[in-house]
Please model this.
Amino acid sequence: MNSSLRHDWTLAEVRAIHDTPILELVYRAQGVHRAHHPESKVQLCSLLSIKTGACPEDCSYCPQSAHYDAGVETEKLMGVEDVLRSAKTARDAGASRFCMGAAWREVRDGDDFDNVLQMVSGVRDLGMEACVTLGMLTDDQAVRLKRAGLTAYNHNLDTSREFYGDIISTRTYQERLDTLAHVRDAGITVCSGGIIGMGESIDDRCGMLIELANLPKHPESVPVNALVPVKGTPLGDLETVKGVELVRMIATARIMMPESVVRLSAGRSALNEEAQLLCFMAGANSVFYGDKLLTTGNPDVDGDQTMMREAGIEPLIPETASAETDAA
Ligand code: SAM
Ligand code: DTB
Ligand code: SF4
Model:
């Protein structure tokens, strides 16, 4: 473990970083970035909703919750072949990680989980990293996912411990942390981050980053989402966050967790190109790539390719993208 990585951040310290004048903050974050990551490279991750809607949880940001009517069509678990066809299309368009999301509260053993295991090994066989986000997980289920070849498990803390109850009442912060521990113990890399723009305070944003950085090991990837307000959800009428708020959050995450991949995630459609480039300057080195997130839109592939080409940004292809390198 790298002893220069810190796990003892305090709120006062993190607030001071977050609130630094923006040009100074971005300069500092870019310095940290260059010390730990190749410059001008951004990983392209594609996302697919493999099971959509009718979720029993009441997460107030989420259009897939059965508690609200956000007009999302419910769909049962997709077939393995269809998922792998979609993964191949994403790979051929340049993605190196394929992320599969299911609107489940938790994983249940049985046919559906067995099919997800087949999806994971099929994606790895295509030479891509495989990530899933399936809700809560037991230690045994995490081990089975690892055996199937899973690269990363996405499970977001979403906000601070203090604000969590204002957003979700059907599960606790501790349950989130327990699943992250099962993932870590199984030897799967951890993808965990959160959402800004849900009515939380700046201290809540910093508090969430502290929870992530003070875990025994930093998550290997940290998605920073801006709320996509969806009509019908309790947060559907909120305004989208300003680009500069994402820049501050990304820069602060980059400085606190120097080796992690920081993903500029949901909310990119509401940002112009310049704001996105400032996020990359602040240390974001991954995006969701493909016309759709789970149920909402994302910048289209052609536009992203043009933006990257004009900016001289190249795809970051991790060694773990190749199935052969991860036989252990
Ligand atoms: N059901 C699983 C869970 O909650 O962990 C996996 C799927 S869930 C949709 C994955 C993540 O999507 C959430 O943790 C949240 O961070 C993000 N998300 C959901 N709705 C969103 C929205 N409207 N805007 C931004 N992010 C959102
Ligand atoms: C993450 O942090 N963001 C992604 C992924 N992990 C699963 C999900 C974003 C969802 C945005 C709303 C939607 O499309 O339904
Ligand atoms: Fe369900 Fe996940 Fe959406 Fe919460 S965020 S309602 S658990 S799909």
